[in-house]
Amino acid sequence: MQLRTDLTTRTEQAAYLADALAGLYQGPATPSPIRGGRWAALRRLRAFDVRNYARTRNDVARRTVSQLSPYLRHGVLTLAEVRDSILNRFGHTPDTEKFVNELAWRAFWQIVYAHLGERIHHDLEPAKHRSRVARRSLPPEVLTATTGLVCIDESLQELYTTGYMHNHARMWVAAYLQHWLGVDWREGADLFYRHLLDGDPASNSLSWQWVGSTFSHKPYIFNRQNVERFSGGTFCNRCPLANGGCPFDESYEQLARRLFGVTLAELEGRR
């Protein structure tokens, strides 16, 4: 194997070596998109193109996210080297700014965790609005990914088989469990933590609390229009409930009233 001498940074050199060595190992097939250690992480970092990230990062179908979170979670990559790699390759643009902002959120969750410790696994604030439905345990159809809702079931199936779920889909699932089904957020957080390869106590629990409004100023909700927009219609086009019975097929005003018994302005804290 001939080594190149034109690579200037240690990250470039390590990534090149990782690419070269990758062809020497043929491991068993795995359904997970995340595998390997430092070499695999550097390859993924090197391959990630941040251009258009700000516009497409929420698109569940197109998958333009980096999928670096498992490597960050387990310390294979650091936030600083990911930030520096992206800025060195793409400069300061709206896309790199948005990506670095997402890295900052991960750092923020860790700071909160360091400060509060195990308190993050309990309501940090009273919920601004609670679902009109109340139950604690996860229903069996969630555990088996058989709710009948394609957007929810396929997101859960991906979680159970690969250990990964797109962040926007995580928000949908978290909101569905808390606000539509009335499941205690800790039950959902435990479910995610058991399966996610990037499962991190801080990011996981605090994100669930953000959706539930015990660590944010309002609950996060979504509707069918949101699912169609950020999946290119791929879920709704195949959903048996698309022509009737979809619990998300309402306006935000209607959902605020049905789920919480308040107006949308009240839900969002607007006067």
From TrEMBL:
FAD binds at residues 53, 99, 198-200. The keyword Lyase does not apply. Binds 1 FAD per subunit. Keywords: FAD, Flavoprotein. It comes from the Bacteria. Residues 99-222 form the Cryptochrome/DNA photolyase FAD-binding domain. The keyword Flavoprotein applies. GO terms for cellular component: cytoplasm. GO terms for molecular function: deoxyribodipyrimidine photo-lyase activity; DNA binding; FAD binding. Its cofactor is FAD. GO terms for biological process: circadian regulation of gene expression; entrainment of circadian clock by photoperiod. InterPro entries: Crypto/Photolyase_FAD-like_sf, Cryptochr/Photolyase_FAD-bd, Cryptochrome/DNA_photolyase_1. This is DNA photolyase FAD-binding.
